[in-house]
Every structure is written in C-alpha cells, then in structure tokens.
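Hi everyone, sorry if this is the wrong subforum. Our group has a chain we'd like a structural model of before ordering constructs, and none of us has done structure prediction before. Sequence below.
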Amino acid sequence: MTSLARSTRVHRHIRAPRADVYRLLIDPAAIVKWRVPHGMTAHTDTYRGRFVRLVPNELVVEVDEFETGAPSLRGAMTSTFTLADADDGGTDVVGLHEGVPPGVSLEDNETGWRIALGKLAVLAEAG
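Answer:
Right subforum, don't worry. Here is the predicted structure as tokens:
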C-alpha cells in the first residue's frame, strides 16, 4: 500500500457559522490551540505545512510534513477541509487526510483528527 492510498476521513458538526470556522482553520494563532491533539508535544512531534488552496468559507487544503529523521514518518500529507452549512445554522466540517505515513496508524490518525476537530468546535462555539 502506498502512502498516498493511506487516508482517513472525519466529520464534525460545529454550532458556529462557516466564516468563523474558516477563520479558525487558517489563523496561525488559532491553529496552535486546536490543531495539536492531546498528548502531542512541540518538542517531539513537530511539523511544517503550507496552504495550497483556500476558498473562503468553503475549503482549506494544506500540505504538511512531520519534521523527523524517522523514515516511516516522512512524506507529504494533504489535509482537505470542506465546510457546508448545516440546517441549524452551524457548519458541517469534513476532513480528508491523504498520504498518512506508514509509521502512523490510520486509527491513531483518525483519533487525533477527531480530537483536533473537537478542540476546533470548542473554540468556534465559544465565539
């Protein structure tokens, strides 16, 4: 299985408008609050990334790579976040994470993203 075939998909309903969620997805000060799952530390699990496509209030695509010497954790990962209006006025967020390195279990990747989106929801819903 190639690393490009390794992917996870997560969904989260957030009780906040799309514009608020979008802002938190791209704001560097907000990213450091929601993006890193519990248990990850900046001393051991760092990464670098860049946005490759932004459609305001609709889509965020970024490419990230772990900063590591471990071959099993190397490689570009693409994270695509799609935002849609929910019936209750909130936002449905779908995250597709492609290119998960072989050194990261898909289950751990999915769990990490669920935690991160939960933290994003807390920030967005707090206003």
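For your construct planning: The chain has one domain: 3-126. DSSP finds three helices and five strands in the chain.
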